[in-house]
Design goal:
There is one protein chain. Helix 7 packs antiparallel against helix 8, helix 8 runs antiparallel to helix 9 and helix 12 runs antiparallel to helix 13. 35% of the residues are buried. The N and C termini lie far apart (68 Å). This protein has three domains: 161 residues, Alpha-Beta Complex (Spore Coat Polysaccharide Biosynthesis Protein SpsA, Chain A), CATH 3.90.550; 90 residues, Tetratricopeptide repeat domain (Serine Threonine Protein Phosphatase 5, Tetratricopeptide repeat), CATH 1.25.40.10; 88 residues, Serine Threonine Protein Phosphatase 5, Tetratricopeptide repeat (Alpha Horseshoe), CATH 1.25.40. With 362 residues, it is α/β, with parallel strands linked by helices. Strands 3-2-1-4-7-6-10-5 form an eight-stranded mixed beta sheet. The protein has a two-stranded antiparallel sheet with strand order 8-9. Keywords: Transferase. It holds the Pfam family TPR_8. InterPro entries: Glyco_trans_2-like, Nucleotide-diphossugar_trans, TPR-like_helical_dom_sf, TPR_rpt. This is Glycosyltransferase.
């Protein structure tokens, strides 16, 4: 059986670090903690699990910190997590099974990353990341912000999922502008942005409400026609969201349709197109797009996946659309399909109550 080093970079993570390390402590053979300047009890908590705690002076570069952490590993494979990540019990079992069966010829293992959840704690936003890598291959991290681990060779996809658990939601924290500031410092220095930098800088601008500037950089990213195709598709979707925030429906549609250059319509694109037609009461056209959303498989999509757009959401909208064109039986059918995914959803239950009353009074 292979041995595994867990490598982490942390700063002021006293609220979440214990739950993270506790979820993986029995699965790894070594824990490496690199602290980038904590002023709370982060190191004290880390010391309950490992003696291998190292200081690293923060230089506005996540890759340098992660590569430093990797350099301290001594086991066969390196596994990485962030402090607000955990392995749930079912994934701890899967991780142990992976560890028991992992062949030495494997160079890297990708795992699902669940980062958003509905009120029933079902994952709503997921994607894959390379999480476990052979130490002898000396794979490196790249990118000051939104860094990525460049791997090659024999890469396998596992069914292990890492679950992102944010800090206490009851504490009101403003959105961090740390990453945005790092990008802007780099621009001020005259650094040349890679396609990945352009994409993630655009995302930061959008997330901070700087829509016009975000549009400028999304278009720059797309016009250079470089980078990962999944980032290009997401850039089109995010570009459409910027135009929507600015009230420009025509350019919103153009941005969504541009994503079709790179692949078949993703369910999110189809649902957003359906929403645009539904808002205009063009229900027959909306129906076409919502059906399309349910007919495209998301299983092999390597980029961001939002399950709602291929499951309950288009079904719920089809219910509304069919009712408005007089197809009442189909409206009930699609509400029931939505209910199969969200049995306690208020909108689904309200529709059901309405239908029961309507048909009882006929």
């Amino acid at each position: 059986m292979v041995k595994i080093s867990l490598c982490m970079i942390v700063k002021n993570e006293e609220e979440v670090l214990h739950q993270c390390l506790n979820s993986v402590n029995d699965l790894v053979d070594e824990i490496i903690i690199v602290d980038t300047g904590s002023t709370d009890k982060t190191k004290e908590i880390a010391s309950q699990f490992t003696e291998k705690i190292f200081d690293f002076e923060w230089v506005d570069d996540f890759s340098k910190a992660r590569n430093f952490a990797f350099s301290k590993a001594t086991m066969d494979y390196i596994f990485w997590m962030d402090a607000d990540d955990v392995l749930l019990e079912e994934d701890q079992v899967k991780f142990q099974q992976l560890k028991d069966s992992l062949a030495n010829k494997v160079d890297a293992v990708s795992m699902l990353y669940h980062i958003a959840f509905d009120e029933y704690d079902n994952p709503t936003f997921s994607f894959r990341r390379n999480r476990l890598v052979k130490r002898a291959r000396n794979f490196q991290w790249y990118g000051a912000v939104h860094e990525y681990l460049q791997v090659g060779g024999n890469i396998i996809s596992s069914d292990v999922a890492i679950t992102h658990r944010k800090k206490d939601k009851s504490i009101n924290r403003p959105q961090s502008d740390r990453n945005l500031k790092i990008y802007e410092k780099r621009l001020e220095k005259g650094e040349t942005f890679t396609p990945r930098d352009l994409f993630y800088y655009s995302n930061e601008l959008k997330d901070h409400g700087q829509y016009e500037k975000a549009i400028q950089f999304y278009n720059k990213f797309l016009s250079e026609d470089k980078g990962w195709v999944e980032d290009k598709i997401r850039a089109c979707i995010n570009l459409a969201a910027c135009y929507r925030s600015l009230g420009d429906a025509e350019k919103e549609i153009d941005a969504l349709l541009k994503s079709l250059v790179y692949d078949v319509p993703r369910p999110e694109v189809s649902c957003r197109m359906g929403d645009l037609y539904k808002e205009q009461k063009l229900y027959e056209k909306a129906i076409i797009w919502y059906h399309l959303a349910t007919n495209v498989s998301t299983e092999n999509i390597m980029g961001f996946r939002q399950e709602s757009y291929s499951t309950w959401y288009p079904y719920l909208q089809l219910c509304v659309c069919y009712w408005n064109i007089g197809e009442k039986e189909l409206a009930v059918e699609y509400n029931n399909k939505a209910k199969a995914y969200r049995p306690h959803d208020p909108a689904v239950l309200k529709n059901e109550e309405f239908f029961n009353s309507y048909f009882a009074n006929k």
